[in-house]
């Protein structure tokens, strides 16, 4: 008499791999994969110590870069006192000549060494007399005359070669360079004594 009630529900098993109808339609990523995608390299300093360390590293790199540029003769890295055609002319003018004033420091060292050498009593007085009363005054007079001549000559020639440039101080600049030992001059010489260019370093 009683009929079995027919159900419309599908009794077939549901595959565990089928996505949920109300879900995102894709599998949920693992936590470590999601964190790895979000993780980005952070360069900002975490504290004052780290910021100071990064600042010192940047300053050290800038100094190295500037020194390499100066050694190459790139005027972009020169201090303001070394820039300009007049200053370059002054450097080349001094570097292309052997001037008495460039021997000021070696001669001073020689005089100092002579005063330290334990000469015999009979000779010591004569050496000191020759050094103090003859050698030192002659050296100072030679340096002074050379410096005045270099300053006047370089400033006069620079004013003729560069009439539109400011040559104020270029004579003193040349005289101070002429007092330095050639190998210690900076920026380094671009010409050899006689005017030939310095060969590039290999």
From TrEMBL:
Composition-biased stretches (Polar residues): 1-10
Residue ranges of the region described as Disordered: 1-66
Pfam families: DUF3043
Transmembrane feature ranges: 103-119, 125-152
Keyword Transmembrane helix among record annotations: yes
Keywords: Membrane, Transmembrane, Transmembrane helix
InterPro entries in the record: DUF3043 (IPR021403)
Biased composition (Basic and acidic residues): 47-66
The protein's name in its UniProt record: DUF3043 domain-containing protein
Organism (species): Streptosporangium carneum
